[in-house]
Amino acid sequence: MTVQSRTDGASELPLVAIVGRPNVGKSTLFNRMIGQRRAIVGDEPGITRDRIYGEANWRTTRFAMVDTGGIVPDDDAVIPANILKQAGFAINEAAALIWVVDARKGITPLDQELALLLRSTGKRVLVAANKADAVSLESDAGEFHGFGFSDVFPISAEHGNGIGEMLDELVAHLRGADPSVTDGSEKISRKGARSRRGLRESTPTEEADGTSALPAKDELPAKELRLAIVGRPNVGKSSLLNRLMGEERAIVSAVAGTTRDTVDTLLEHQGQTFRIIDTAGIRRKGKTLAMAEKLSVVMARKSLERADVAIVLIDAEQGVAALDAAIAGYAFEEGCSIILALNKWDALENKKTGTPAAFERKVREQMKFLSWAPVITISALKGQRVDKLLPLAVRADKARRVRISTSRLNEFFQREIRERSGILPAKTHGGSRLHVQYITQIGVRPPVIVVFTSGGKPGLHFSFLRHLENRLREEFDFFGTPIRIVERHKTKGRRRQESASRKGGKQKR
User: String of b and e for 168-198 (b: at least 16 CB within 10 Å)?
Assistant: First the structure.
């Protein structure tokens, strides 16, 4: 599998890395500069762990930003050591560094260690003396000049004080270092920069019957495919991201809950751009205790709102759990196309020829509402069958964008439902039977089908809905995507009203 991430500097915005020791306000500054709440902020030290990318614009000059975890140079513990490694990647990529220090606490031994580390890079370093909310603290920020960096700015990331002066100096440096960085530059943003996301549904047009119809084309164009990786803690989400990217994009450890922030990464595969969204492990509400962990779960669930396709990762060693079905349910509710991936397949012992089929049956039993979702066994660690995921995601995304004309839908309905199966839409009520007048598609991503009915009592029978959905999937290849079927019932009063309005229209002419 050939996968390339956008790392060539000629096609990207200049990168500015925010660095510093834990709990000095790096993520608060990052969120303020990009104008979004992308990074989790809290009083607990060490919340940020992976690299979080975004895009900033100051006085019409655009540049990419990366937030890093708190650096502790001599800590050999697994997570701090990996945070340092991730921060090192960001520092190497960056054109300039913003070093955030705490003006309230003043210079600390850890700051002195970081000063040596940053000086050795030879890069432009702007010192942001954060939490300088009072005049006295602004004057105290001057002590940071002792590190040998000429640019020291007393700021308040929380209130926005002093950030403008720092950005003026930063932009002047970026323009001087790279003459192509000009006002209104249209360079492609680097991985993780703000997505130019379109509407989830296409712009509808109004038909004569009052319903909305899609533009007259068979398929909406796919640009950036947003692919979310979700699952329980420690099922291998970050390992899968790293395997797809071919680099250590996210921290991986045996500690459950290592990933906190939602990490966006862009990559190219066979001409298709993917925005891969690595999320924190989702636990049950009663199991999330720390505030940072609660926020990470909220952000993981919110990431599904902007995803086109969700890979629901399941631990093959532990088997299918009720929480796996709940997480898949979140993706289903948000209208995502879904791929069910059984990870750690290489670690499963005593596998036989029928083992994959047996596991798939267990998955289907737990997730009956996802009978249409493909199931694949993979190993993110060894790379087994990982190369099949992106083609499956492309196929599912293509299916969710398909638009079927009203004439084709009703020809299908007449042939497959009325004539061949003969299944009734509902039971007879009071001697009156519910009739289906016609069906039409009013939405995509996911497909939305409206069934117009009249007579009898409104309410399509679940067996009819299930049969209709299954036949739609077979006929139009809605692979791996949910289908929304909505009933609109015309009552007698409404029909009389519409008839009167049509007669009135004829009289006017």
Answer: eebbebbbeebeebeeebebebbbbbbeeee
Q: What is the largest CA-CA distance in the chain?
A: 91
Residue 91 near residue 83, CB atoms below 8 Å: no
* Total count of residues recorded for the chain: 509
Judge contact between 236 and 315, C-beta under 8 A.
Answer: yes
Q: pLDDT tens digit string along 366-406? A: 999 999 999 999 999 999 999 999 999 999 999 999 999 99
User: Which of the listed ranges 124-128, 186-190, 203-207 does the model predict with the highest average pLDDT?
Assistant: 124-128
Q: Which residues have C-beta within 8 Å of that of residue 299, sequence separation ≥ 6?
A: 40, 261, 262, 279, 280
Segments in 229-345 forming alpha helices (H): 237-245, 291-303, 322-333
How far apart CA 59 and CA 38 sit, in angstroms, is 22
- CB-count burial class (<10 Å; 0-12, 13-18, 19+) for 400: buried
Distances (CA, A) of 461 to 221, 285, 468: 35, 34, 11
CA 295 to chain centre: 15
pLDDT recorded at residue 429: 75
Query: Token pair of 191, please?
Result: 């991985």
Q: Count the Cβ atoms, other than its own, within 10 Å of residue 345.
A: 22
Three-state DSSP state, 206: strand
Q: What is the pLDDT of residues 406-427, one digit of tens each?
A: 999 999 999 999 999 888 898 8
Q: For the whole model, what pTM was predicted? A: 0.66
- Whose structure tokens read 């990009």? 34
In a 10 Å sphere around its CB, with 0-12 CB exposed, 13-18 middle and 19+ buried, how is residue 152 labelled? Answer: buried
Closest C-alpha among 101, 100, 145, 95 to residue 121: 95
Take residue 144 and report the two structure tokens written for it. 């940071």
| Measured torsion, CA atoms of residues 141, 146, 149, 150, in degrees rounded to the nearest 10 | 70
Q: Is 287 exposed, middle or buried (0-12, 13-18, 19+ CB in 10 A)?
A: exposed
Q: What is the pLDDT of residues 43-79, one digit of tens each?
A: 444 444 457 888 899 988 999 988 887 665 554 444 3
Q: What tokens does 397 get?
A: 């995304």
pLDDT at 245: 84
Contact (CB, 8 A) for 144 and 127:
yes
Least confident window among 129-138, 153-162, 279-288? 279-288
C-beta neighbour count of 120 within 10 angstroms: 8
H or E element in which residue 232 lies: none
Chain-centroid distance of CA 294 in Å reads 18
* DSSP 8-state assignment for residue 417: I
